[in-house]
Amino acid sequence: MTDDLQVFWATYNTLVYTVGVHAMLALSIYLTLSCGLLSLGNAAFMGIGAYTAALATLRLGLPFGEALALGGLLPGLVALVIGIPTLRLSGVYLAMATLGFGEVVRVVFLNLEITGGSMGLNGIPMKTQLWHIVAILVVLVYGFVRLRRSKIGRAFEAIKEDETAAKAMGINTTSYKLLAFVLGAIIAGVAGGLNAHFTFFVSPREYGFDPAVDILTGAIFGGTGSFVGPMVGSAILAILPELLRFLKAFRLAVNGLILILVVIYLPNGIWDRKLFARLRRKGSA
Amino acid sequence: MIAQQLINALTLGSVYALFALGFTLVFGVLEVINLAHGAVFMAGAYAALLLVTKANLNIWVALPLAMLASGALGLLIDQIVLKPLRGRRAHHLMPMIATIGAATLITNAAQGIFGAETSRFPLGTIPEESFQIGTIRITELQIAIVIISFLLMLLLMVILKKTRLGKAVRAVAENPQTSYLLGINVEGVFRLVSFTAAALGGGAGVLIGLSFNAIFPFMGQPLMPKGIAVIILGGMGDVRGAMVGGLFLGVAEVMSVAYLSSDYRDAVAFGLLFLILLVRPSGLFGRVLERKA
Amino acid sequence: MLRINGLTKQFGGLRVLDEVSFQVPEGIIYGLIGPNGAGKTTLFNLITGILKSNTGTVHLGDELLTGLPPHRVTQAGIGRTFQNIRIFREMTLLENVMVGMHDHLRYGLAGTLLALPSHRREEKRGRERARELLSWLSLDTKATIEAGSLSYGEQRKLELARALATEPKVLLIDEPAAGMNPAETEELMGEITCISRRGYTILLIEHDMRLVMGLCQRIAVLNFGVLIAEGAPAEIRCNPEVVEAYLGKDV
């Protein structure tokens, strides 16, 4: 490594890690969106995963791999339990119910002794390495590619487009929605576990209403036409404040402005394959 | 003791109701979850602060002016951010995402201008008299807050129920296309509702700013999940429901702080919210009508 | 084959279907006609489990369908199309038909994620079958385009192909000719006859009398939720009650 590169890495490694974790969260919300579910519970699932993995490391002294696995498993189980009654709701009602669930989770973290109350958990050892994040992302992307060309991926899309018609095709829509919800929770949980092991601490504040909305924003901003869009969108929203550093106090304001402009001028998100195709045709003609 | 708590709950609850009223109005008529409502709430409080400190106005003069200012801000958000999105076949969540952009923009601009620290009204702005009735202490401010909130809510209800304008608003809430065919100025109704909702939100901001005497750029943020809780409790888009829901949330919060622990304040409200959604998704007052949103 | 016994459905105080009973014998095209609001589509929704009946039963062969959720009714062997077209507009024709095969592709999540041979084999078999079904309705040349870009008539045909993909014992078709021009209707009649010849039992709702009389071996007539006649087309044509309720204006 040259000196420049070392300086860059020393300055920006946390940012690179953050981009990776956000990409995972984007995939987790894309999974539920891809079968038409607007679930805002992902931040809460991430929180459950983060606390679980951190406690597994701090209290039980488990190896990192096992801590991460627990961090995925517990949110998955919680999703299974709350999913059965909750997924009967649709549209904004589901969004609100999952937000409500998220607030309950946040308050539980705030008040349990084992989660360290409002102070959260500190001194979590640095265990996440870049290759962990990259490897998990590669596995996830491979899984999404496989899923898209399978009856499961088609069932998700059918449910998103027309749930009644999907049922008439012999698809057990309830189980598939539950599957998407649980898988989404597991991914968010693992992302939380990774996050806790490079930021050194977890606190209830990180998993409330605002992060829940941020995850959704990244996904819609990128475009929900394919799983690439949400990853691109969330990565850009994570990097943008760094790029706008010169604006000082106003940089987040510009972030908001960019969001508005994209929504107005690129209504399908910035990663819009149909738009790309149109541009290509125009370019060659 | 319990009577004192009820007074406190009534004060807090009536402001929540006022806040949620604007929120629910926009959802009911424009079918947008307006996540910039918290930013407008904050802007109302700052407007009142400026009017009191820079223009030396009495707070009760500043209040209606601050409401007008936040109403104008709401109108601006609607015209710049939401109007271009209407009638488009974009993702149905796009308008909501756009309001997140607006909220981020406004909140952080406020932080850039006023700084992150908490501002306070100068001494003497807030009425400090209080009355002692038996063991209960009621401040003049509490009385003012309750009266103002209820007057505004009543006024809105009467307008919606009794006037031609109110009928037009309700028709648009029911079905914008049909209303348009019936000759109702739908865009006009959207503008009016955006203005009114933001004015109510800004008013709530002033009242909260007064009762805690604390104004800061992010003061609207904790209100957003609460506003959502209230309109779910009351049924989405339901005006009467927002009032009852707001009061209910105020009572739930004050009582859980008084008798459980302050730590569980939000858990009570949101636990209830979660349960209500599972049992009765349309809220306490909501029509059993699944809006496709 | 399909036995409907005493089916009643009430919405509030309104009785939309009143003790309707009839049987669809195996292998024929059975017509269900009646004026608008007679309860025909409601009957389809009751058979397929989208709505729950107040009383009455539906049997397919020996199997009781009443009370099953919609996807189980489909798996039991009832395929259907919708009156207001409900294709998956953002999927290709091939994908649409393959969604219909959902229950007949034998692999699971593990097979998909691990790229097991079962996944590849079944997907290949599914694609071939889907192309075959599309060719039955002369849509095979458009297999890879997006369904939303099809013409109205083609979308109706795609719904038929998709319903056939569920491997139904009985195919319920809701107003297939609605919105079609005479030439398209003619072509559709040929295609439905072909499907019937391949051994499918068909229950058909239709307004176009020429199509019904030309295709169906037996016909049931609903009027305000009551079954007023049932029999061969020739009998229905001469039934005075039917003529008064329905045919009087149209024929």
Q: Any overview of this molecule?
A:
The complex is a heterotrimer of chains A (about 280), B (about 290) and C (about 250). Chain A is mainly α. Chain A is about 75% helix and about 0% strand. Chain A has helices at about 5-35, 40-60, 65-85, 90-110, 130-150, 150-160, 165-170, 175-200, 210-220, 230-245, 250-265, 275-285. In chain A, helix 3 runs antiparallel to helix 8. Chain A is globular. The relative contact order of chain A is 0.18. With about 290 residues, chain B is mainly α. The radius of gyration of chain B is 19 Å and the shape is globular. With about 250 residues, chain C is of the alpha/beta class. Chain C has one domain (about 1-250): P-loop containing nucleotide triphosphate hydrolases (Rossmann fold, 3-Layer(aba) Sandwich). Chain C has ten helices and ten strands. Chain C has a six-stranded mixed beta sheet, sandwiched between helices. Chain C has a four-stranded antiparallel beta sheet with strand order 2-1-4-5, with helices on one face. Chain C starts with a strand and ends with a helix. At the A-B interface, helix 4, helix 9 and helix 11 of A face helix 4, helix 9 and helix 11 of B.
What features would you highlight for this structure?
heterotrimer, A: 285 residues, mainly alpha, 12 helices, globular, C: 251 residues, alpha/beta, Rossmann fold, 6-stranded mixed beta sheet, 4-stranded antiparallel beta sheet, 24% strand
Tell me briefly what this model is:
The complex is a heterotrimer of chains A (285), B (293) and C (251). Chain B is mostly helical and 293 residues long.
